[in-house]
Every structure is written in C-alpha cells, then in structure tokens.
C-alpha cells in the first residue's frame, strides 16, 4: 500500500476509535433521558386519571392522560437496542408491562366515560400495574447508569430524583382527592405524604445550596422554590382543604422547571 494511503487509513482508524466511546456515551446519556421522561409521563398518566375521576370525567384531563400516554410511548420507542443482556431483558419486560398498563388505563377511561364511575378493584389493579412499570423503568435506569457512571452528573441525578418525587407527591395527592387513598398512588414506598413533602423541601434546599451552581441554575431553582411554597402548606394539611387542581397545575410547572435545571446542568458551566 502506498505510504500516503496507509497514512490516510491510519488516520481513519484513529478517528473511528476516538468516536466510538463518544457515541456510546451519547447513547447512554440519551437513553437515561428517555427513561426519565418515560418515568414521569407514566406517573403523570395515573395522577391525571385520578383527576379525571374526581372531576367527573372532565375532558381536559382525558386529553392530559392521552398526552402523557403518547409521550411515554414515544420515549420508550426511542431507547436504543441495548447490547447488555441484562439491560435488554429489562427493556423487553418494560415494553410488555407498559402495554398491559396502557390497555388497562384505556379500559378504565372507557368505563368511567360510559357509566360515570369505576369500581375500586380495577383502580387498585391499575395502580399496582403503574407501580410495576415504574419499578422496572427504575431498574433499567440504574442498570444503564452502572454501565456508564459518567453519563450524567451528580447534580443532574439529584434534579431528576427531585422531579420524580414531585410527581409522586402530585399522584399521591390526586389519589386522596379522588377518594381512593394513598395505597392507590402508585408510589412503591407508600410513605406518608407529609414525609414526601419534607423530603422534597430538604432536597430542593440542598440542590439550591450547591456551591458550583451557575447563576441560571440558581434563578431557575429560586422559581421552583417560589412555586413549591405556594402549595407546600396545602400538601402538608391535605385533610383540611382539598385543592387538587392547584396542586396538579403547580406540580406540572415545577417539573417543567426542574427539566430546565437538568438541561442547564448538562451544559458547560452549569455546575463546577
């Protein structure tokens, strides 16, 4: 082979070798993001169903359920074909569980629309199925994170955990407002809502007090704190006055703001 062709071939091989780990890193980072969004959308679909139930079939919540289902379906479809055998098995399991959950949700929505109410046992079954989906999604998330511990920063991980906690609180509150109880919330921990609220406040303060936060991150977190204070007392005193619409609206806004924080942390200079 001529010298100049050999040099070109070596450069091509070197470039390919450098790109492979970068591509793998991007894939893991993207998969983790897809799973995070899937997790939140699946949680939200159950909370929206409780709102749909308690608001006597308000079509606004039917549309929100459909939007959450569509988002979850799309994010699940965006996951890469995972090479790791264990992760691939979890991915297949997650797809199957999601399909069953989605089918049960569709059936319950139709029943509610037709007869104006739903029996408690199918609702309990739906909550159990939602919990199963979330547990498998979390197991897959953790498996991917173990494969590439550098795919996301500690700050991004903390922000995502906070988003999931906020969604858990919102679903828990919606379940109580729909008079089905905390055991129907889909939260596998089944912790009292007061404990969840205290945990959120502590975690939010810890994230805001990170020394390396950029100005943009802190401004966004301050906005989250303002919204949180607006509903915190209602969440702590949920037995005194039920305000499900308020909690639902503000929790959605908080989760969107935390997604902005996640994006900021992923950018250069988001945190040091």
Describe this protein with a few key phrases:
8 helices, single chain, 2 domains, mainly alpha, 272 residues, 79% helix, de novo design (two linked rop proteins)
Write structural notes for this entry.
The termini are far apart. The protein folds into 2 domains: 1-151, de novo design (two linked rop proteins), CATH 1.20.1440.210; 153-272. It has 272 residues and is mainly alpha-helical. The chain has helices spanning 3-54, 59-77, 85-115, 120-147, 154-177, 193-208, 215-236, 244-266. Helix content is 79%, strand content 0%.
Poorly predicted segments: 4-8, 12-25
How much of the sequence is in beta strands? under 5%
**Could you say what the CATH topology of the largest domain is called?**
de novo design (two linked rop proteins)
Global structural class: mainly alpha
Radius of gyration, in angstroms, nearest whole number: 21 Å
Number of helices: 8
Count of individual domains: 2
Quick take:
The protein is an all-alpha fold.
Topology:
Blueprint: H1 3-54, H2 59-77, H3 85-115, H4 120-147, H5 154-177, H6 193-208, H7 215-236, H8 244-266
Helix pairs in contact: 1-2, 1-4, 1-5, 2-3, 3-4, 5-6, 5-8, 6-7, 7-8
């Amino acid at each position: 082979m001529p010298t100049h062709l050999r040099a070109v071939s070596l450069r091509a091989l070197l470039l390919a070798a450098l790109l492979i780990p970068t591509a793998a890193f991007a894939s893991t980072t993207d998969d983790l993001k897809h799973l995070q969004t899937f997790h939140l959308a699946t949680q939200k679909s159950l909370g929206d169903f409780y709102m749909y139930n308690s608001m006597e079939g308000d079509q606004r919540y039917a549309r929100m359920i459909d939007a959450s289902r569509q988002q979850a379906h799309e994010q699940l479809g965006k996951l890469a074909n995972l090479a790791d055998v264990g992760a691939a098995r979890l991915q297949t399991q997650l797809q199957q569980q999601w399909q069953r959950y989605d089918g049960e949700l569709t059936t319950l929505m139709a029943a509610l629309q037709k007869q104006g109410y739903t029996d408690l046992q199918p609702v309990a079954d739906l909550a159990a199925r939602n919990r199963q989906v979330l547990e498998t999604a979390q197991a897959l998330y953790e498996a991917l994170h173990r494969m590439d511990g550098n795919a996301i920063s500690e700050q991004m991980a903390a922000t995502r955990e906070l988003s999931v906690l906020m969604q858990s609180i919102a679903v828990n509150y919606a379940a109580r407002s729909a008079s089905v109880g905390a055991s129907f919330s889909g939260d596998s921990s089944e912790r009292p809502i007061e404990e969840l609220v205290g945990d959120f406040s502590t975690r939010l303060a810890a994230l805001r007090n990170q020394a390396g936060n950029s100005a943009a991150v802190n401004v966004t977190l301050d906005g989250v704190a303002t919204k949180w204070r607006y509903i915190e007392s209602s969440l702590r005193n949920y037995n005194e006055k039920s305000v499900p619409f308020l909690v639902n609206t503000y929790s959605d806004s908080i989760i969107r703001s935390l997604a902005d924080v996640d994006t900021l942390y992923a950018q250069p200079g988001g945190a040091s």
